[in-house]
Amino acid sequence: MGKFCDDTKDYAAAFAYYRQANELKKQINRAYDRQTQVARVNILIDSHAPEVVRQAWAGSSDSQQPLFILGMPRSGTSLLEQILASHPQTFGAGELKFWGDAVKRFAQESHTAQYGEAMLRETAAACLANLDKHSADALRVVDKMPRNFHYLGFIHACFPQARILHATRNPIDTCLSIYFQDFKQSHDYANDLDDLVHYYREYRRLMDHWRSVLPADVLLEVPYESVIADQEGWSRRVIDFIGLDWDESCLNFHQTQRRVGTSSNWQVRQPIYQTSKERWRHYAEWIEPLLVLQDES
Prior knowledge:
Elements (H helix, E strand, L loop, with lengths): L1 H6 L3 H18 L5 H14 L2 H4 L12 E6 L5 H9 L4 E3 L5 H8 L1 H6 L4 H18 L5 E4 L8 H7 L4 E6 L2 H9 L13 H21 L5 E5 H6 L1 H11 L56
Parallel strand pairs: 1-3, 1-4, 2-3, 4-5
Helix pairs in contact: 3-11, 10-11
């Protein structure tokens, strides 16, 4: 009902329905633990100093096949993957769980940057084998799991030549879109506006750190608003960044036939549209907690 009211521009009713749904989900989902998230980000920042991140780790792979798109959910990751997957030498594998599972296996080492040679060699080989299951011949295979931003130290230690695309979007639009989405319990911050602000700020704090310590030639920020304003310009820039020659098929991404396993399945099959830009203004009177993010894009 929330989406129906949003589509019919009855924004007051739409927000009431979405708020009711989120309050119900808060009763059955685990609570978001702010202290745990802050502690996690602190450990990653403290342990991944520039000299640690940029050193040559024994056991790493020089493969450029893994290609990462990450950021907050609802920040344009699916659109970016669809553009890339339209290139004949790139395969979009969707949101892979590989790095989350790898971090669970090597939790202490990956959080404190204790990367052993055998650990990195084994993880890199397993990652490439997993990508081969999706496409054995693509020069680039996209993993667009948004939460991989937590694991960039581990990822870069394994694949120092791999390119990373950080999808960004207006923070209020991002958080409101998450609030309106029926996510699974793994997004425990998604059902409360104040929790969304907290999680978003911790995400930005960690990404600011990665940007400061990773080599400039492996991380590119891709703003959603810029992509929809200049699709060809940004598509060309991204294709050049990942080391491939330009292909015109990237401009017709909405015609590419492939499975999209996220809530953006319908959107990425449409030509570029502007209606999601500053959508939050329709709901400004009901989202006061999010408005503190207005100057934090």
